[in-house]
Amino acid sequence: MASRFRHLRARVLKAVFKAHAQLYEASDGRIGKWIGIMAPGRPTLLLSVTGRKSGLVRTTPLVYFEDGDNYVIVGSDGAARRDPQWWKNLQQNPQATIRVGRDKFPVKASLATGDERDRLWQIGTDILPAWAEYQTQTERLLPVVVLTPTSDP
Predict the structure, then answer these.
(1) pTM of the entire structure?
(2) b/e per residue 110-124 (b: at least 16 CB within 10 A)
């Protein structure tokens, strides 16, 4: 029964995230930046990555914070046992596009490590304490991903 509930929850969340991304895009970023489905009141960006197997562009709404000119996201996936698909895709191809409100631009993703990860993790968990809670619920180290704007089309 618990397994059926998890699958149902995952399907519902996938549909909600898809609707959020569609509303964000359809409104040209006017609606959606502050509709944090899992973290109300936290800013949300749209991350568009190319699927490593399908070659199709997939878009995911994610809570973020800024660090200088960079945008930082965390691959918590609600404390899932595996990394989120978007992170697996970025590992294969770090070029992506993000929408932050009405602005849309290319970025290059990199994994924060060492002292940089520690610093960004502290900032992130101060902004969204749920990330720290998720880390206690899974054995994997949640990836802290830095999105650096590029001039690549």
Answers:
(1) 0.85
(2) eebeeeebeebbeeb
